[in-house]
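Budget justification, computational time. The allocation requested in the original proposal was used primarily to generate structure tokens for proteins on the priority list. As evidence of use, we reproduce two of the resulting records. The first is shown immediately below.
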Amino acid sequence: MNLRERLRFQILNKMDLTREIEDEEIRQMIREEIIVMGRERNLSLEEKLSLEQEVFNSLRKLDVLQDLLDADDISEIMINGAENIYVEKNGVIEKSKLKFSSEEKLYDVIQQIVSINNRMVNESSPIVDTKLPDGSRVNVILSPISLEHSTVTIRKFPKEKITMEKLLTFSSLSKEMAEFFKSLVMSGYNIFISGGTSSGKTTFLNALTEFIPKNERVVTIEDSAELQVQGIDNLVRLESRNATLEGKLEVKIRDLVKAALRIRPDRIIVGECRGAEALDVLQAMNTGHEGALSTGHGNSCRDMISRLETMVMMADDVSLPIEAIDKQIASGIDIFVHLGKVNKNQRKVLEVCEVSGYENGEILLAPLYQYECREGKDVWNRVGTLHHTEKLEIFFSETAEESNCMQQIG
């Protein structure tokens, strides 16, 4: 038994479990034991403070995981069994020196995490998605479904809201583009954001919401609440719910989209389309609900169209021909935005396209902004610049003409 486990064992034996014990009382008990052990081990002040925090975390928080959650420079935590913990720092994945004392301790921490939201994970239900109090997403897969050991993956929720101004600081897009997106959001364009895993889709969606007029009624729909819409007083946040072990009480994203249409929204924001809910989102966009925002996994603006077609086909209560689906996409979505990583870790806007119509069985996309790679760089190590195309000038001229017509009609 190492020093930390020995100290933890002694504190557990001293704790009076018949009453509620405050955190500071536990810390004081740990300090007293450390003083005694320090005489034997000749521990330095730094070692004593570190030992105190480790033991406290193991008793009251999430053990070694707590240090990783508290680190601001870590964006993702990947636990492959008790002894293999990997973290993503500034877009780079590296192995952490920290490890759990045993698989049993890891299992205890897993149960502690899922119990926060009254969830359950066991042999009969070995896979669970949940979240931490700060909104960080958590996925758990227990052994033996995960063959060698249980796995936990945590996408940390940023403590500080990422604004459009910060995205400009990160060079994720240009000042011109930020103004362009501001005008799109304020004017009520339906925008769909695509990108791969960890490309910054939700972050970018959050940044776009700061341009929503403050007097609008906004409804957000998510499977795990991550959106940070600020400055909107008339805000309704909806979150889906998984079924119980008996297969009851499930609330799907599709149910929430349908419910949102009945509560008089000015704007609907769907955190991510993953399946059949894409059909309901498109129908909402096509029935007068302007300014809708959503995201989805895709490799380009064009590829996102194929993904949306597939997702709509997943709706088991509706069977639509591909032509009808494409017409729904063409008439519902105004702008596609594609995000990706440059130099493997820097997130950027790579492509912005306007949906300009539907002809001869194909959705027409007009590129407004494109990321141009420099010669000699491949797609995994892109270096280049984002520039607007000639289509952007046409887009602005058509928008101005439409605005003038609307004013004359008014």
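The second record produced under the same allocation is shown here.
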Amino acid sequence: MENKLALINGIGVTMDGDLPSCQAIYLRNGIIQKMGESLEITKLAQREQAEIIDLAGKTFLPGLHDCHVHMMSTGLSAIGIDLYHCRSIEEVMETLEKEKTDNTREWIFGYGLDESRLAEKRPPTARELDAYFKDRPVYLLDRGLHYTQVNTMAMEIMAFAENEEGQGQDETGNFSGRLHSQANSHARKYFFDKMTWEQRETAIRHTVETAVAMGVTTIHAMEGGDLSSDEDIPVFLKIIDDLPLHVVLHWCSTQVQDVAEKGLKIIGTDILLDGSIGSRTAAFKEPYADEQESVGELYYSDEWITHYIENAHKAGLQTGFHAIGQRAITQVLNCLERALNKVPVSDHRFRIEHFGFPDDRDVKRAAALGVVISTQPAFTYLRGGPDSVYEERVGSERNHRAYPLRELLDAGLVVNGGSDSNVTPINPLLGIHAAVNPPYLQNAITPMEALRLFTIDGAFTAREEKFRGSLTPGKAGDITVLDQNPLDVAPDRIKDITVAMTIYQGKIVYQK
């Protein structure tokens, strides 16, 4: 049975240069057929016996993209305990105690732990967790996903080697339960590997439900590898075509052959070359302002990164890495240059996720190399600016240059927008607002430029601009309907716009 739908009497922002605006649009079998004035499209829809929806002046756009989501981690909020609101270690303990399940065989799982919001400016130690939960394993995820905090029982169950890198110690030399680097990967793998198929599918579908309510029709999903579990990948592949949005699956694996054999087109991109600002593990040349002995960490050698890029390019796979600090950005660009000298690829669209603190030279170098940038405007909006955790960690001068979107676009770089959920919420309108209203105006971009991050340029970074990202005849019928036009409202009101409807492949998947 054919699926036919027309939207009329709307304000269409198409992101298509040939027809930048329209009043109405007609979709058949999930594909855009025609755009134009309302009377014209109404007559066509009536002839075709299509459903007609009168938008009564609402704005319709290409389906919004979120180009960096941890779908599994985000979905775990359906089964975990949210700790983001906590302002002290005592409140963390009270929240865990109050919201833990009654099943004593289950791990106590908390997420969103943000030590910068705690009075103590640190997470609870294993010993402090033991005082409340001695006989039950506790697993707490840092909001930025760059460390894990566990109690003694969890450490014993996960069986760390005595000299395993990344095991934090307290002032007495005992293991504190704070796990970075290799120990963090070990812990995440153990915790995520023990989930059932049903739990994984529940988590994925929970994330999808959240996303479509925010107007999202495409997600770039960062899954598997050290981020969660490779056991997630078969679940994604089994259900991906039945989900009510499009998922570009990024298997964050180091095994090129495995990814190629699954028929995927992209590998890695969120393999961590360094850490985060909050955990002081993003790699800089200069020390952290609030911890002079630390310059962050680089997790891989130049040789390994270069070899990995070469192998991905030989296999015809798009690839990239997570790099936040200046030192990590320089490292990955050096390695990309070497790899392209050995294995030239003319349109590689190598992705750098975050690209938080580049220097001027590396911005120009990234543009010359044809790199695409995947960034998260809400990072600085929610955590940057004066009197913020960014300011505390890196100092005023570096903080002013954090995530310099204006400079990136002026250099000719193609940039997409995402949330890094569950680091910040899936909410493209918040991302657009944040890009237009950053803490420091030198980094601001226009509403149209910001909308591109979450539509056509998001599609470009996934090699999908021929199929998605604009309202163009022949492209997928993915549409987001808003109660106001983000190009017309006052710039400081963009975040207050609400999603009225989400349409995926010509079908309404969310309606307010």
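A brief technical remark on that second record: The radius of gyration is 23 Å.
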